[in-house]
Amino acid sequence: MNIANQMMEYLNREGTATPESIAVAIPELSQCGGAERALLLLRLNPRFERIDIDTSCQTPESSDEFMVKEEREVYLTSSKWTVRGSGKTDEDVVREAAEQYFATLGRPGAPIVNVVREISRTTGLGVPKVKQILLTQFETMNTNIFNRSKRQGE
Fold first, then answer.
1. Rounded to 5 degrees, what are φ and ψ at 3?
2. pLDDT at residue 148 is higher than 70
3. What backbone phi and psi angles, to 5 degrees, belong to 145?
4. Torsion angles phi and psi, residue 72, rounded to 5
């Protein structure tokens, strides 16, 4: 299986990822260029799309990361990419992971700290971001979070 297909499978499984995390997950990329090679392949293949366009406003002075500048758009190795048309955002990934977690837990709720820690571990997203997303999407009471969507109560 070629590297582009492995990248496609990885992004289908994970939803969104950075070139850095893709390079770590695919040994062939780690051996031949790492994140820079992953970034090149992501940019060249029309099946992939960048979803964090806000980072394009960064200037070369504001970041020590590897970057490629083309027509005033900066491509960082920490930029988020996905499979074109999949449309999975971090919010979608966290929601799916939380629903799976609650299903395996067998209870309608759990302490927020435990849920955030587990979702952060499984998705690879930072703890503060996962906590913020969970608190906006699910009902909470005191230190517990429940498998009830806030959207249902509206």
1. -65, -40
2. yes
3. -120, 140
4. 65, 15
